[in-house]
Design a protein that fits this description.
Blueprint lengths: L3 E5 L17 E2 L2 E2 H10 L4 E6 L4 H7 L3 E4 L6 H7 L1 H4 L5 E6 L7 H9 L6 E6 L9 E4 L5 E5 L6 H4 L4 E9 H10 L13 H8 L4 E5 L2 H4 L5 H21 L3 E2 L5 E2 L5 E2 L4 E2 L3 E3 L4 E2 L4 E2 L4 E2 L2 E3 L4 E2 L4 E2 L3 E3 L4 E9 L2 E2 L4 E9 L1 E3 L4 E2 L4 E3 L9 E3 L4 E2 L4 E3 L2 E3 L4 E2 L4 E2 L8 E2 L19
Parallel strand pairs: 1-4, 1-6, 4-5, 7-11, 12-15, 13-16, 14-17, 15-18, 16-19, 17-20, 18-21, 19-22, 20-23, 21-24, 22-24, 23-25, 24-26, 25-27, 26-28, 27-30, 28-31, 29-32, 30-33, 31-34, 32-35, 34-36
Antiparallel strand pairs: 2-3, 6-10, 7-10, 8-9
Helix pairs in contact: 7-8
């Protein structure tokens, strides 16, 4: 029978000073809960997420997985028990994980499940550089877990133990539910703690095993500082993967990637680039310094930036150039086309080899609706042109600098639309200001 997972995600994010549920705070461009779900979906046949009351955004984010609501926050053991009815007596293995531990990897989950062949209850543990106030995992001569000692209750020898409890547990479903139902709340907070199932299992003579994983995977996120630390860990992993895949980064520590950034071999990234979600960059493309990309595709051998912004729906075709202080939104820039300086191109289709002069804008919004601009292949748009959409400029057409184009321009035509220049002799400063 396939395994199931319970993910505890009811935290309010109080220490983050936020009105958002804690697990909805983003890492690498997506809510932290989605990172954990991605790893879990590869390993578990069923997933139930435990949320707090009045968290509709979180419920939508974890769909289509089942949702259980913990209406009273009475501890992690109580939260896990709320998911039991949705598991419907699941007889296979059930793991309980935490939504604010988003960096647990698929590989670590795989080792957790594999260890169940040797023990009745398995937990994740780590050896942090600073063990601090973590609960210590005490093991016997056979390597099995004897008990977990909370820091406040530990003696000097126990506090010297480097192996620390991460809180994640896995056991056969019916046994886990039975142990959870037996957990007591006779502690200072009056809460039901998930980790108390370890003592209950040991009291029955059951074998309990700890699976070690890196601290970077198991660290919890309870504050903005810890969120930033987790972001740094994740960015390091994403950068390393990109470098291993053949991407050149001149200053990797200054490049920020999204969880789904797709970079082909021989892409070159200059310093200080930010990737939002949904970006694909093909082989040989160069993204120059201080550029921001999201929801776009950059095809092979294109050049972006410096100081360029590509917004969602943009496609830059092969060998096209997007220069400094150019913004594209829902625009296709055709093969070999160039927009090299100081332009806004929104809701536009630009043909192959077209040249967009400095200061050109597409006036795509009339206050109510968005409209498209079409520019044909080989067209030349002079500097400081305003294209008032909906409008079409034909192939090989030429638009004079400073024009405001409100009507279609045929193929091979010249269009000039600017006010008449008037010169008034003798009406200048007449030497003032000397």
């Amino acid at each position: 029978m396939s395994s199931a997972a319970i993910i505890l995600a009811a935290g309010l994010g109080t220490r983050m000073r936020s009105t958002r549920p804690k697990v909805m705070h983003p890492l690498a461009g997506r809510p932290m809960i989605r990172h954990l779900l991605s790893a879990c979906e590869a390993r578990f046949g069923r997933i139930v997420v435990v949320v707090g009351p009045d968290m509709p955004e979180l419920e939508r984010t974890v769909a289509p997985h089942g949702v259980a609501v913990q209406r009273e926050r009475l501890g992690t053991g109580h939260a896990a028990l709320q998911a039991a009815p949705l598991l419907g007596g699941h007889d296979g293995d059930v793991a309980v994980l935490y939504g604010d531990n988003p960096l647990v990897s698929e590989a670590t989950i795989g080792r957790l499940l594999a260890a169940r062949a040797e023990a009745d209850l398995v937990l994740l543990a780590m050896r942090p550089a600073e063990p601090g106030r973590y609960g210590r995992v005490v093991t016997g001569a056979d390597g099995m877990v004897e008990r977990i000692v909370e820091w406040a209750d530990a003696d000097e020898a126990e506090r010297a133990i480097g192996l620390c409890n991460a809180g994640v547990v896995c056991a056969r479903g019916p046994e886990l539910v039975r142990w959870l139902s037996a957990v007591k709340n006779d502690n200072a907070k009056g809460e039901y703690y998930l980790t108390d199932v370890v003592a209950l299992a040991r009291a029955e003579g059951r074998r309990v095993r700890a699976v070690e994983a890196p601290e970077a995977e198991l660290r919890g996120i309870n504050s903005r500082a810890e969120l930033a630390a987790a972001e740094a860990v994740l960015q390091g992993q994403l950068r390393a993967a990109a470098l291993d895949a053949g991407v050149t980064m001149q200053a990797p520590e200054t490049v920020f990637l999204a969880h789904d950034t797709r970079l082909s071999p021989d892409v070159v990234l200059e310093p200080h680039i930010v990737f939002g979600p949904g970006v694909t960059v093909e082989e040989g493309a160069m993204i120059r310094a201080f550029s921001h990309l999201e929801g776009c595709v950059v095809n092979r051998d294109a050049i972006i930036g410096p100081y360029a912004r590509l917004r969602p729906g943009t496609v830059v075709e092969p060998r096209a150039h997007v220069g400094n202080f150019v913004e594209l939104k829902a625009t296709t820039l055709g093969p070999g086309a160039k927009a090299n300086h100081l332009s806004y191109l929104g809701d536009a289709t630009i043909g192959a080899g077209a040249n967009i002069g400095a200061g050109t804008i597409t006036c795509n919004y009339d206050g109510v609706n968005k409209h498209r601009t079409e520019i044909g292949e080989g067209a030349f748009i002079g500097s400081d042109t305003a294209l008032v959409a909906p409008v079409k400029v034909g192939a090989r057409a030429l638009v004079g600098a400073g024009s405001v184009i409100t009507a279609d321009v045929p193929d091979d035509a010249l269009a000039i639309a600017r006010g008449h220049q008037a010169v008034k002799p003798g009406r200048g400063f007449k030497g003032k200001g000397k």
